[in-house]
Specification:
The chain is mainly α and about 425 residues long. Helix 3 packs parallel to helix 7, helix 5 packs antiparallel against helix 7 and helix 12 packs across helix 13. Helix content is about 70%, strand content about 0%. The protein is globular. The chain has a two-stranded antiparallel ribbon. It is built from 15 helices and 2 strands.
């Protein structure tokens, strides 16, 4: 938080620390904290973020970890997103919720460094994972078999990519951990407050501007341009495919189902991207305006104060809304969520489902093994085994079928294959 903003929020400017700023006690009269609306609004918003974020992301992580058949390529990235959101909610939200409630930072230097560090990690994991998801969607739609031809296994490659994303996010967040500090801000009347501040004084104004611009480009503008490029290329490819193969698309029901499944996944990834854009646009807009507009210190008024609070809250809201979006667009996740939260499915039903799905998997594997050993099963068995393998391959290639499918009238036991 900027010194000038802190002092204007306090309602008093100090000409010793900021000699170029004009003091107008009439325009910047002090407003006690207990008379400010944000003192009561911000804690309520952060309490909602904490409850919804821990519940939604916790159930999402639990669902993906407990059900092995859901650990496909896109779901690995979704798991990474949820873990990053959980990290920032658990470690940052309880402490930063007091920024607009308590006049002075009460948590000390260690929590200040941890809070800024984890916040940057979470933002980096979110935006880089969304970029990787967009690239994965592009590969799955434009050339789904290229990875297999190149000899690359999808899941290990995805796990490696997700791990590298975390490493990159941690490396980029190191300056926040090293340089965040808790300076004392002197105010009028021998009064002073403490703030958690990520920019050290000895580095000067250029460091502040450089870090603000770097975060805007690395965490917002460049990834979103890359994502837009992938989706434009995907849209162009789907348009050409529809135009060049009208007969196949109109007569091949299975092909149409595959295309619809891919579009559902693409729409869900787009929804994640749109949520990210909306949640971080006010934050970056304010930071760029305040640090690069020459008259920002004089122009800072009630509008910009409210705008900054909105951006501050939205940047944390991003950590809890992805499970909400997933709940509404994914019938499978909705059922899993209701299962864990509301206990709607009995133990007996789950046992029957696991037995039936396990039997189906064993039958498919047995028929596949028989064909590999040269056994002469019936034509029906051979076709059934081939169908099982083909459907499994297509489910893997269309990806995120577990979380991106709509509700249907299928029986409960089909949950793991929808």
């Amino acid at each position: 938080m900027s010194y000038e903003v802190v002092e204007k929020m306090a309602g008093i400017l100090n000409t010793t620390s900021f000699p170029n700023m004009e003091v107008n006690d009439e325009d910047h009269s002090y407003v006690p904290y207990d008379q400010r609306p944000e003192t009561y609004i911000v804690p309520v918003v952060f309490l909602i973020i904490l409850v919804v974020g821990v519940t939604g992301n916790g159930i999402l992580v639990l669902t993906l970890l407990r059900h092995a058949n859901m650990r496909n390529v896109p779901n690995t990235y979704v798991l990474s997103l949820a873990l990053g959101d959980l990290l920032v909610i658990v470690t940052c939200v309880p402490f930063t919720s007091t920024v607009y409630t308590i006049e002075s930072w009460p948590w000390g230097l260690a929590v200040c460094k941890l809070s800024e560090f984890v916040k940057d990690i979470s933002i980096g994991v979110s935006v880089f994972t969304l970029t990787a998801l967009s690239a994965e969607r592009y590969c799955a739609i434009v050339n789904p078999i290229r990875r297999h031809i190149a000899g690359l296994s999808a899941k290990p490659l995805t796990i490696l990519t997700a791990s590298l994303i975390w490493v990159l996010a941690i490396v980029l967040a190191i300056p926040s951990a090293l340089f965040s500090h808790v300076p004392t801000i002197p105010l009028q009347g021998n009064h002073s407050i403490l703030i958690c501040y990520p920019f050290p004084d000895e580095f000067g104004d250029n460091y502040k501007k450089g870090m603000v611009m770097f975060k805007f480009l690395a965490y917002y503008a460049i990834p979103l341009c890359v994502i837009a490029g992938f989706y434009l290329a995907m849209a162009r490819h789907l348009e050409l495919s529809t135009r060049n193969m009208p007969g196949e698309l109109s007569t091949g029901g299975h092909r149409m189902e595959q295309i619809r499944a891919r579009k559902k996944v693409g729409k869900m990834v787009i929804s994640f991207v749109i949520i990210f854009v909306i949640c971080f646009l006010p934050y970056h807009t304010f930071m760029l305006w305040f640090h690069f507009c020459p008259s920002s210190d004089q122009d800072f008024d009630d509008f910009w104060h409210a705008f900054r609070i909105i951006g501050f809250c939205l940047s944390f809201v991003n950590s809890c809304v992805n499970p909400i979006a997933l709940y509404f667009v994914s019938g499978t996740f909705r059922k899993r969520f209701n299962e864990y939260l509301c206990c709607r499915m009995s133990t007996r039903t789950l046992s029957v489902c696991r037995t039936e799905t396990g039997s189906l998997e064993r039958n498919g594997n047995r028929l596949t093994q028989r064909r590999r050993l040269g056994g002469h099963g019936s034509h029906y068995e051979t076709s059934f085994g081939s169908t099982i393998r083909r459907q499994t391959q297509e489910l893997n290639s269309t990806a995120l079928y577990e979380l991106a499918t709509e509700d249907t009238a299928a029986p409960t036991c089909d949950l793991d294959y929808k």
